[in-house]
Amino acid sequence: MNNNNGFPESFMWGGATAANQYEGAWNLDGKKASTADMMTGGTHTVPRRITITTEEGVHYPSHEAIDFYHHYKEDIRLFAEMGFRCYRMSIAWSRIFPNGDDVTPNEAGLQFYDKVFNELKKYNIEPIVTISHYEAPFALTKRFNAWASREMIDCYVRYCDAIFNRYKDVVKYWITFNEINSLIVPAGAYLAGGLLVDKNGGVFNNTSVDSTQMRFQALHHQFVASAKAVKLAYEINPDFKLGCMINYSHGYGSTCKPEDMLQALRMDQINNMMSSDVQVRGEYPDFAKRYFTEKHIHIQMADDDEEVLKQGCVDFYSFSYYKSHVVGTRPEGDETQGNVFGGYKNPYLKATDWGWQIDPVGLRYVLNHVYDRYRIPMMVVENGLGAVDVVEEDGTINDTYRIEFLRAHIEQMREAVRDGVNLIGYTAWGCIDIVSASTGEMAKRYGFIYVDKDNEGKGTLKRSKKNSFYWYKKVIESNGEDL
Ligand code: BGP
Fold first, then answer.
1. Domain range annotation of the chain
2. Is Cell cycle one of the keywords UniProt gives this record (predicted)?
3. Are 38 and 63 in contact (CB under 8 A)?
4. Of 248, 304, 348, 438, which one has the greatest count of Cβ atoms within 10 A?
5. What pLDDT sits at residue 200?
6. With a 6 A CB cut-off, is 178 part of the ligand 1 pocket?
């Protein structure tokens, strides 16, 4: 039990990124395309789409991204300068198994992460590794539509076996899937599932197809894959720590009408809690069974799936937190469509330029709410403000708005720690500017470090420190006291 005065001394402060949004070098040293590499760029209004072949003239933001592949030393040095105690990153699966089902892993790919982990070690930065962050080898999508197929489970476990063995002495914290619950919403089909669901063109266009059955089946395959990976991990190194990762969308009822509150509860159960119940408790909750029946979703399970899930429970709960939403009776005159999980405008909150409603107090609520349910260590592994930054003539970037956003959220985390929540770490999302996952843009920046690159892919890739860089350094130095 902590002394409830503030962040524990061992608190892991750091930042987070994902391979396909950061590394670039999408086809170098044996790597082949991942599902993310086949996604076009988007804009504020034009959604990204997945293509079957790389098309001449189409912009694929992950192909170069911001080239961590060739800048890792410089970037890690900057992370160290901010005082990072940990760094959440992901491994690009198709760098290790370019075709997804190769007989042996790609040595050059493994060596890249050897170098990254060595560099982190030099500065005493603890890696937290996401095994699959919104990507899988594209060859597996072409072959059997990725996570729609059970065959994916063995491919994933073989990939885990290779990286667990290779990095067993340098990585302790692993996250099996980024935002595994993304598959519950249609937009998650391509990002999280690598799924092509449009029967006509084979290309998922994000709106027209009801892919519900396929998405929930794919999610089940990921649950089983995750559980098998957890079991394998402990066999390889009993000191490993394995975590789930939930895209936590916190919802309020639009009024205090009981039905509105019940709807908020229902969304919380299905969108947030169902996935973590499976990964933390090792079984589907009862409310999921009712939901599946009502929605005519039929999950096909192998005979031993339920047993496998029971044997693959994670040790920590990690989540992303950006926003909250409002559900229930539509407020009169409100035409808005709120956040990713839908919903309305919250009159008490401001929103980002991308319409994500900013709710620091909601973070305290969620931390308490989830900790009460599972009583296992928690980490906030994504949180931050996507905003347009302006580089002044003298080169400074005065991102006061970002500092305000982060300060308010860290304050609420501190309150949650005082409430008794066992929070062990915080990794600010996109600690260096990277490609946005939902829009494919560079203009939506989260970083403490600015990167010279624009939406069309032009720029020198030069890194420079924003004001928030110095602020976050101070936060870490003071262990979250000097905000
Ligand atoms: C999460 C994803 C990240 C990330 C972040 C911000 O859902 O795990 O990959 O990008 O959201 O989203 P965006 O980049 O769309 O602003």
1. 12-477
2. no
3. no
4. 248
5. 45
6. yes
